[in-house]
Amino acid sequence: MESSTTRQQPPISTKWWSKDTVAIVTGANKGIGYALVKRFAKLGLTVVLTARDESKGLEAMESLKVLGLDHNVRFFQLDISDPISISSFVSWFRSGFDSFDILVSTLHLYIQSACIHFAHILLYHTLLLLLLLLLLLLLLLLLFK
User: Fold this and answer.
1) Burial of 9 (C-beta count, 10 Å sphere; 0-12/13-18/19+)
2) 85: Cβ–Cβ under 8 A, 6 or more apart, which residues?
3) What are 9-30's pLDDT values in tens digits?
4) I need a labelling partner for 2 at 20 to 30 A (CA). Which of 12, 42, 98, 120 fits?
């Protein structure tokens, strides 16, 4: 027999992130990458903003400061096409963080040659870009739900 008083369940929280959630966003000095950094910062995540051009990355950090969103954002100059830059980033990241939870890579495709034997590489990167865009869309849907 059911009780006449219904016990209220606490609402289920859909918030799965905290200030301890670390997001790395590459190419984050403009466009979608910058918009994601702003959104993550507003949500209280710890964000690592990277940019190939150090001055543009510092400009992005300054604009975040003006918006009051720089307190949980760190900047590191990173060129994802340069192995030395990647190695530097990894060393820097490991010295300050245990792990990361989110990685957003804003890929840019540059066609430098029309050689037919590079077509499979272009196809691979195009498919990878589409996959990343789909993942980004899913992430945005979850964040704005």
Assistant:
1) exposed
2) 77, 78, 79
3) 666 567 777 788 899 999 899 9
4) 12
